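Why predict the complex rather than its parts? Because the way molecules touch one another can change local conformation, and only a joint prediction can capture that. The input here totals 412 residues.
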Amino acid sequence: MAEKDTVRDQIVEAAKKRFSHFGYAKTTMAEVAGDCAMSPGNLYRFFPGKLDIAEAIATEDYSKHLDHLRKIAVAPGKDARQRLHDLLFEELRRTYHKLEKDPRAYQMARVISEERPKFANWMLENERKILVELMEEAERRGEFSIADKEFTAEMVQAATMKFRYPQLWSKLTLPKLERELEGVMDLIVRGLCPNAGAEHTAEAAE
Amino acid sequence: MAEKDTVRDQIVEAAKKRFSHFGYAKTTMAEVAGDCAMSPGNLYRFFPGKLDIAEAIATEDYSKHLDHLRKIAVAPGKDARQRLHDLLFEELRRTYHKLEKDPRAYQMARVISEERPKFANWMLENERKILVELMEEAERRGEFSIADKEFTAEMVQAATMKFRYPQLWSKLTLPKLERELEGVMDLIVRGLCPNAGAEHTAEAAE
DNA sequence: ATTCTGAATAATCAACAAATCGTTCAGTCT
DNA sequence: AGACTGAACGATTTGTTGATTATTCAGAAT
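Output of the joint prediction:
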């Protein structure tokens, strides 16, 4: 029982080394098994398949990232705008740097997202929860109040989608991306016509 | 001289038929040339290459679309919010329907965007100009006024990027997409905290 | 002189064979 | 009985060959 977890971890560790060294596609189950001094077949007593090992690695790594984001979302001494700013920028920077300095990890993330849409969805859901926490904290502090937080979080994600998909960046540099994200955030926070807001608020609920 | 344009048009017409019938990849230059009763080599006196024929077709088609969008952007009898709504929805619907009912045209668009990034960029620029026109019209009518219209247009495009890339939709239905676009538009127009807008407006210009 | 042809060329694609690799499972070991 | 092995299997990938096709250009036709 407790044994199992040890072996599981050993497999994850071995796979992590191989994946980050040679990439997901270029490491074979036989190699991972070899590193753990066991037969390929035995891996399947601990994981349903190769992709699930990658998923385990990604989950572990991503969970740490989530903890970090959660702290940013409710950081004291910063107003809601700043917290949202920090949150979105942190995600952008993480993605950008992973792409730049660790292409192999990025490639692995791509494979998982493609092969396991559920996983990508789970990540979005988690980040949405954090956005909701941020808004709840803002409400608690009297910064502002939003009726449907879950829906609003979804829309914030939709509006910042561009910054989550490197495929859409087309050789844009980080500074350029940051400048754009800053602009989009402004749009989201302030709106196109902050003064005209009052007139339209009523009719918007069609 | 005037002759040249006639032949050019003939080639475009022949290619248009072939491309929409069998797809871009499945039609050969020899076939297009045959339809025009000329040799393959002669096509190259009128177009640098196959892709340029496709580009000519796309440009022609897209120009009509642009005229349509321009009308929507300055339509009388509608306020700025509605005009922006109509504009963004028209683009979404066009893309969606092209994808659904004319996969061959969509595939051609994909090839052009991939092979000729400049072209995709040109399209974005044109739509940005229309957004600027919309804002100028809004200013003229006293609906609202925006300082840097070019920049704001860029940000509106960034925020609505999701609705321009079918690759990101994967199985989302049009109603769901429309609901989302509606939400994002609300975010853009009204902002997250329309009441708190005044406090933050000053500090935002860091 | 200009317009066009069509064979030559080089790049791309399709199809097929060989090899590799993820996964399974009958059976061994402890 | 439970943990593990490793040969066997099928799917996927890789490598190769032949054909197709975009593009060029020397020269024919007008």
